[in-house]
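Ops channel
N.P.: pipeline sanity check, posting one input/output pair.
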């Protein structure tokens, strides 16, 4: 399927999940992440979920990161140029939900992309070679292009890999890993 078809298909699948299923699957993903050898890093970027889109509840991953005393970064979106700014998440960080339903920091300590070592990436679909489909605005492609080449890119998905994503373009940045409730995909990019 192409990206547009996949977006429609996976938005529909996610919309059919109950709140309890979203929570249980989110816990399963966090537990899968604990199996990965990624916890020696210092700077981790995580997305805060759009609840109305039934995105993965990353609260469980946040607890892991806080328990391991890691530097946690969250983004603020600029919808004029589809870019993200990244801020250190602290006890004093004030979050507000923007017009798209994304919880974002109001302000704070801004951290450059080059410092980020691990990025947990929201997505709608991914394939067996690490291509991914998001909402189509290119926020994460622009963000990941500014990161170091060894920054670990980890997709999080409720669903298993597609065979193939058609119409991938050169500016699409693939995943190194994708974690589902039952499987860890390693793409070796």
């Amino acid at each position: 399927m192409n990206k547009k078809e996949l977006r429609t298909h996976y938005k529909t699948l996610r919309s059919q999940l109950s709140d309890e299923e979203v929570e249980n699957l989110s816990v399963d993903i966090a537990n899968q992440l604990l199996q990965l050898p990624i916890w020696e890093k210092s700077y981790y970027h995580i997305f805060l979920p759009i609840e109305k889109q039934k995105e993965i509840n990353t609260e469980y991953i946040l607890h892991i990161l806080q328990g391991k005393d890691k530097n946690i970064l969250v983004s603020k979106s600029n919808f004029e140029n589809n870019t993200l700014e990244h801020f250190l998440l602290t006890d004093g960080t004030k979050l507000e939900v923007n017009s798209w339903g994304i919880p974002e920091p109001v302000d704070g300590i801004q951290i450059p992309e080059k410092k980020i070592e691990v990025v947990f990436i929201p997505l709608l679909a991914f394939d067996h070679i690490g291509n991914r489909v998001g909402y189509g605005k290119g926020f994460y492609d622009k963000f990941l292009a500014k990161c170091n080449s060894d920054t670990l890119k980890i997709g999080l998905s409720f669903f298993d890999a597609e065979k193939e994503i058609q119409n991938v373009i050169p500016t699409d940045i693939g995943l190194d890993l994708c974690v589902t409730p039952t499987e860890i995909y390693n793409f070796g990019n």
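N.P.: looks fine end to end. The longest helix spans residues 19-33.
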